[in-house]
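User: Please predict the structure of the protein below. I'd like the answer in structure-token form so I can feed it into my own downstream comparison script.

Assistant: Understood. Taking the following sequence of 171 residues as input:
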Amino acid sequence: MVYKVTFFLSVAPERFLTLVPSKEVNGNFMIGEGDIFVVPFRCRGRSGVFGYRVFCAKVTNLTEWLVNLNEQSPIQFTAVEYDVMIPKDWISDLKDRPLLQAIDEVRGLYRSMNGINIVVVDQYLNLQLRAEKGKGTLEFLKESMRSLDVLIGIEDFEKESELHGRLRTSS
């Protein structure tokens, strides 16, 4: 189970190492002991900004790192995702759930009532929240993490992430 956050930053990948203490591995960046993995990507149609995807298993590590990075250079978040492993029989039950709207059952695309996109992929669900254009602030990150954590069963996000208060004051 892994969080994936997609964002844009005005810092080029070549300068990323000076902004964030990390180790470069095949053009990607490993933060700390490998808890956080950053993959830069090309942005088409966006000048002066660079795209990054961050992968991390623990919300606390990811949240702390993103808040610190945002303090150094403002981040524009575009998506927060989480992959959840599920039993095969649960997937077939998905279409019978009243709180989900089928977007395309053949391709396994659904949307929950709180706006979370759900994509069925083999033995797991990919849960996605996308920021509206110009609304990808730390507030979007905070609300996305809260929505995903409620959906995946982390009942008390305040206890899970001590940095939740920092998100409130940093946005």
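That's the full token string. Helices lie at 13-19, 59-72, 88-93, 138-152, 157-160, 164-170.
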